[in-house]
Protein: Dolichyl-phosphate-mannose-protein mannosyltransferase
Organism: Streptomyces atratus
Amino acid sequence: MVLIAAAAGLVTRMLIAANMPGPADVRIFHGFAKAIVRYGPIRIYEQPLPGLPVYNHPPLAGWMLLGLNELSELGIPFGTLIRSPASIADFFCALLVFEIVRRRASTGAAVACGVGVAASPVLIATSGYHGNTDAVAITFALAAAHLLVDRKAPLAAGLAAALSISVKFIPVVVIPALLLVALRAGRPVFVRFSAGFAALVALVWGPVLVTVPESLKENVLEYAGGGYRLWGLVRFADLFGLPQSFITFIEGNGHFLFVLACVAAGVWLALLRPAQLPVVVAVTMSLLLLLSTASALQYLTWAAAGLFVVGFWEGAAYSCLLGLTAVLGYRGRSAVHWSETVLHLAEAGWVVLAAGLVSGIRKILAARPFPPGQPPAGCGTLTAPRTSQPTGSAVN
């Protein structure tokens, strides 16, 4: 059932990609691709790009754009191609969420959550219409946690973790939690995970770090997002008339404090419940969206699949309300200029996201630290979650 739903979701996304022009990002990515053809995926970071915003994507995204441009030379519209990676990622993410949830809840709950990801209005809008690489990064981040604690494949988990931050840097907030769980699982697991992670990071990031380190640091590592006051803390600060100095601070250097808070929350939860690492990753990425001081409709992807890992109702509530927000936002005059209706929907969606996070944290903490009869992860073995539970929630 999940496979059929995921396939139908992929077809739906690709039909949208093939028949709708998409937002300005489609044109911008096409401009980036042309610039990469001219300058290369390494030197692109130090080049002025007239008419284009700052190129703030990790190194693997450049190689992806280079490949998509080559395919466009064969006659395939670039606008369709640029939205393919996210759409394909959603296909695999639906199956991945099913696999994660069925190890922690009933099969029925797992099917509902997997189908929920496939049919999520947020993901259909952001992957099929918008594109970008957010969905790809989230899928790899969840895959890394699943491979580490559920599949006991630390080498593959390390590779997936490296891929997640190489297409979009946002999953960097979950890397410490992944490393902690790998470390607690014993030296062999930690060595394999670290080897896979370090090898791929060196391969993908190494040439750029050696060639244009300062440009990479400014464009990617220190990128704070756009300055639009459309979402979350900045939106509420503006709404309640807080001083401009405060808003400037949280949009500037202050946003690193929120990033550190997300890292700390993920490490804390992983330390207490290592067997629930996929849920911890989902909650951490959702917390990053909650505390984000930047806003863009594609950022809504960060929590869409993750809240289905927490539970069906959490995921469904978020996907329906924020899906309506995304659809109306994309139908407006600009994806970065939201109408009053969209702004109010986003405010309500932020509250729904906060409620889903509270539910997720409660479920993680309510779960058993380790399955019966298994030693703690620090004793040299990864803990595996229970295969079935009597209720329909993802974690009990």
Observations:
- The chain is about 70% helix and 0% strand.
- The chain has one domain: 1-366.
- The longest helix spans residues 340-366.
- Residues 1-366 form one domain.
